[in-house]
Amino acid sequence: MSDRYSAEALKGFASALFASTGLESDRADVMADTFLQADLMGFTTHGLNRVASNLHWLQSGASRKRGEPHVLADRGNCFNWDAEFLPGPWVVNLAIDQALARAGEYGVVTATIRRSQHIACLAAYLPKIVQGNCVGILTCSTPAEHTVSPQGSKTALFSANPIAFCAPAGDYPLLFDISMSVTAGGYVSRAAREGNMLPQQYLKDSDGNLSNDPQAFAQGGSILPVGGVDHGYKGAALSAMLEVLSMGLGGYGRGDMVADDDEANSVFLQIIDPSAFGNSENFLRQTRALMQLWEACDSDDDSAVRIPGRRAWQLRKEQLRNGVELYPTIVEDLRGLAESYALDMPPPVN
Question: Which residues are the signal sequence here (predicted)?
Answer without folding.
Answer: none
